[in-house]
Specification:
It is built from 3 helices and 7 strands, in the order H-E-E-E-E-H-E-H-E-E. It has 155 residues and is an alpha/beta fold. It has one domain: 60s Ribosomal Protein L30, Chain: A, CATH 3.30.1330.40.
């Protein structure tokens, strides 16, 4: 049975996909005490296809980047669900870290990351307000436009 958060997501038309398996020597999440850290998630859709490839500021628009960041956030939520069994066990979104595949002069990474941040606030309300870092990078795995990692306080 879906909890409150999943029902809210479903009302938005968001269905959590099967979480992606790690592609290297790491685990998808680690829990220590009341903190759950989720490894970086790429902008895969429910079919496992990258939604947005390339560099922001060199062919990828801010709007498409923000949508990609939202897909990353959906994949974070899918990992949370796998770790906890119920998204209602999230007490707080503590931090998001965003990596934006950027042209050298692209300075609007924070606008791109709003796609992930906005979804967390929509899903969790005030518990979704978080600290954040946004970093422009030269490349990401599979030429993904965005990758997002997260830290969550859980019960």
């Amino acid at each position: 049975m879906a909890g409150t958060i999943e029902k809210k997501l479903a009302d938005l038309g968001i269905v959590l996909p099967t979480p992606a398996a790690p592609v290297a020597n790491y685990v998808p999440f680690v829990r220590t005490g009341k903190l759950l850290v989720v490894s970086g998630q790429l902008c895969f859709d429910a079919d496992g296809k990258l939604t947005t490839k390339g560099k922001l500021g060199a062919g990828v628009s801010i709007e498409d980047g923000a949508k990609a960041a939202q897909f990353c956030a959906i994949n974070l939520l899918a990992q949370l669900k796998a770790a906890l069994g119920d998204l209602d066990k999230v007490a707080r979104v503590v931090r998001l870290g965003g990596f934006i595949n950027s042209a050298p002069d692209f300075i609007d990474g924070p606008k791109v990351m709003n796609g992930a941040s906005d979804l967390m606030v929509t899903a969790f309300g005030d518990k979704g307000r978080h600290a954040r870092t946004t970093i422009g990078v030269a490349a990401l795995p599979a030429d993904a436009a965005v990758e997002v990692e997260g830290m969550f306080e859980v019960t």
